[in-house]
Amino acid sequence: MPQFYVTTPIYYVNDVPHIGHLYTTTVADVVARMRRLHGADVFFLTGTDEHAAKVVDAAKERGLGTGEWADRNAAAFQSCFAEFGIQNDDFVRTSQERHKVKVAEYVSRLLASGDVYLGDYEGWYDAGQEEYVPDTKARELDYRSPINKKPLVRKREQNFFFKLASYAAQLTELIETGQLSIQPVGRKQEVLARIRDGLKDVPISRTSVDAGSEWGIAVPGHEQHTIYVWIDALFNYLSIVDTPERRRYWPADVHLVGKDILWFHAVIWPALLLALRKLPGCEWMGPPRSIHAHAFWIREGEKMSKSMGNFVDIEELRRYTAEFGLDALRYYLITQGPLGAADADFARQRFIEAYNGDLANTLGNGFSRVSNMINRYFAGQVPPPATAFPALQAAAAEHVARAGEHGAALRLDAMVGSAFELLRAVDGFIQETEPFKLAKQPEQLSQVGSILYHAAEAIRIASVLLAPVMPRSMAALWQRLGLAEMAAELDRSPEALSRGGVERWLRWGQLPVGSPVQQGDPLFPRFKSAS
Ligand code: MSP
User: Fold this and answer.
1) What are the strands of the beta sheet with 131-133, ordered from one edge?
2) Which atom of ligand 1 is nearest to the CA of 49?
3) Closest Cα to residue 207, out of 155, 161, 158, 162?
């Protein structure tokens, strides 16, 4: 059984989660569920990045201990993810011993390897992003953070440096050959161009973070140095699977990240792994297979920021789930979100259009129509397919194949699109074959039954394709089709699922004749605006 390892960035705990965090984590959740559906042994990791100076500062502002503040926010991330249906396999906190011990071990190995040396740093630092900024770039930015516009800080300190510059050729080759795939392709070109411009060695420790505090991970043997928070954080992807039971998941198949943190993931992180991989016992620690950098959510055309106070926060997202259901929110995030190179606008009007057009109409009404006819003409039991309709069957197979390809390439909107094309094909099939007219002639009843079997089976297949995005509503749909067995199999714990292999549910003919079909409230009631 193939392994699949997907990660999200780990999130700073200086504050509570917002749409950006939930978005990436939801994308990862959909990818994980989709891979499980295709029979992979999946490991999905998310978590929190706790040793940033801004976490220390935020705690101080509130008169709390750093650990206390981190605990609170880490709990907020965990409960947010649970509330929004995320099924991660583990949740890493960088303040956990299991992570700290491993990071100290990796850094001490690098110290001994000759890839790390002690030097002096003088230059600019973006405290909000916890990022060193080269002089030329600082000038271009007018000495302000491109993200929060706050002034860059001048730093002068003694640091341990990692010999990043010596990995330029190896990194270029990895990326150009696609051994390390960077998506979208425009971002890959940006990364390659920046490597061509020249790589400088990078600091991996700091002396000025929170001197004298226990926060952070000390450089082994040099306790006055704290491991730079980005290095500490990147290692989470490795530390959490660096156990005998989990090593099989390495290397990560995809690191999902935002475009602002691609450089760390596409350049610094693989180079660290290339350095580690040379060391005895670390040969397995190769670079990840792919990194996908999404763009940003904006709001009604405006950039979202704390200072503007226009962030879509969890409260607001919760109002959407209360009004439309969690799966409708997931559907919106996945199909309208900034997974590619372009930013995406979070706008209520677009949400309602997608909800009414796709979910209430195409999916919800399409399903109601078929289940109502099965109830009316066949006493609520799936009729036998006496006649075959090979065209619809072929369309189903084709859309399943396409959805699989789109999903594997992380084109999640296109994956969902394939399922909807299948639903529209069912709609066209019903328009064409007119079972509601044929049903008026008793001798045509068997033909009506065949039509409805095909329609219901094609909808069932589309629903399986949609299940990674909308697990709860699709399970509700299966219950109504009397498919308790399928619902149970697809909803099992990841461990059980990984043993099962559930791909068969994507094949034609799994809907049993005689299955009891229930009518009920619409799966996605049409939204009528008050105005
Ligand atoms: N702690 C680092 C990541 C370390 S990974 C080894 C970090 N944390 S963060 O909490 O600031 O941000 C995490 C993610 O949120 C980033 O991927 C960032 O791109 C994303 N987003 C922040 N604002 C966003 C939007 N407006 N829209 C979408 N994602 C956004 O960076």
Assistant:
1) 131-133, 116-126, 153-162, 202-203
2) 1
3) 158
Q: Whose CA is nearest to atom 2 of ligand 1?
A: 11
Closest ligand 1 atom to Cα of 257 = 17
Tell me which residue of 513, 430, 495, 508 sits closest to 462, measured CA to CA. Answer: 508
pTM of the model: 0.95
- Chain-centre distance for alpha carbon 84: 13
The residue behind tokens 């509330």 is 83
With the most atoms of ligand 1 within 8 angstroms of its CB, the residue from 7, 12, 77 to mutate is 12
pLDDT of residue 496: 47
Ligand 1: lining residues by beta carbon, under 6 Å = 9-12, 20-21, 23-24, 49, 233-234, 257-258, 260-261, 296-297, 304
Alpha-carbon distance of 171 to 183, in angstroms, equals: 15
Instruction: Give tens-digit pLDDT for 151-174.
Output: 999 988 899 999 999 999 999 999
Is residue 494 within a helix (H) or strand (E), and if so which, with residue range? helix 494-500
Whether 347 contacts 320, CB under 8 Å = no
Task: Locate the ligand 1 atom nearest the alpha carbon of residue 269 and give its number.
Answer: 6
Average the pLDDT over 84-111 and give the result: 97
- Those residues whose C-beta lies under 8 Å from the C-beta of residue 101, and which sit 6 or more positions away, are none
DSSP state, residue 150: P
Instruction: Provide mean pLDDT across the span 334-351.
Output: 96
Distances (CA, A) of 214 to 73, 130, 231, 314, 349: 19, 19, 17, 31, 48
Mean pLDDT, the chain, integer: 93
